[in-house]
Amino acid sequence: MLSQITYILLDAARMGNKIEEAKELNPTHDSLYRGRSEESLAVVAPYIFLFQHKTDFINWFMAKGWGDSWGVLIKSAYPLEELHKHFRRFLIVGTEDHQQLYFRFYDPRVLRIFLPSCDMGQLREFFGPIEYFIMEDEDKNFAIKCWLQNGILHSQKIRLPDFVSGNVKPHEPAQSSPYELQKPGIPSAPSAPSAPSVPGTPSAPSVPGEPAIPKPRPKWNMFDAEPSAPSKPSVPSAPSAPSAPSVPSAPATPSVPSAPSVPSAPSAPSVPSAPSAPSMPSEPTIPGPKPKWNMFD
Question: What are the sequence ranges of the domains in the chain?
Fold first, then answer.
């Protein structure tokens, strides 16, 4: 299995000065950074190295770097230049709040979490020319092999001695279910759509049915102008106050004319015709004209 590996991504940030040692042992390498980043961030940059079997470089890496998250092994039939171009596409990613961050996919601790979280489209884009990745497990006595088949992510946990000796069948299904990533990430995600059942909560829209009930709208509903307006006519009920004109009943005082009992002023009885004024109180019975003091009309 180790003999089939063709490239390795190494992380200078994890290796420290050991990256210079790697460059001396294996001159066929290239930084994934370019321009100013390549110059100013050389000591923390990711590098892609050619990985050839039975070399001092491989023996050195397995003895010094395995288990310390130095990098990720790759199997690909493509030339180094193509892989270099491919991996440079993923160096920087954007966040939801529009920030740009360096993506450390070449760190096995990151890649172990990242791959199972991808959807089918992301997996196909990320794997591209890669046949499979191999990285150390949290337990350095095991390696994890990840590959894409029919758009589905598969993984296999391999004992380190078997990985080194090659005593593993190509793409052999994993026997340990915890490491079979058979893309539970993808199917499980669709199960999430079952969440759309949550839209069932829109049953709450039954609440909209309530608007039908509010025919009698409360007086404090400042947004319903129409009903509040008619409430004003209730104020005109105040015209009952015009009953005050009943004051004209005071003309009843014309009863004083009873004084005309003085026979000398019999002609005065013609004055009582004035009491016809009391007919005024009959006006309030006419709801048409409303008194001037009604400020609401």
Answer: 2-187
Neighbours of 18 (CB within 10 A): 17
**Residue 215 and residue 263 in contact, taking contact as beta carbons nearer than 8 Å:** no
The two structure tokens encoding residue 194: 């079952």
Give Cα separations from 48 to 23, 68, 246 (angstroms).
11, 17, 107
More confident residue, 165 or 146: 146
User: Cα separation of 55 and 136, whole Å?
Assistant: 20
Judge whether 44 and 13 are in contact, CB under 8 Å.
Answer: yes
Q: Does the global pTM surpass 0.70?
A: no
Average pLDDT of 37-57? 91
Q: How far apart are the C-alpha atoms of 141 and 160, rounded to whole Å?
A: 5
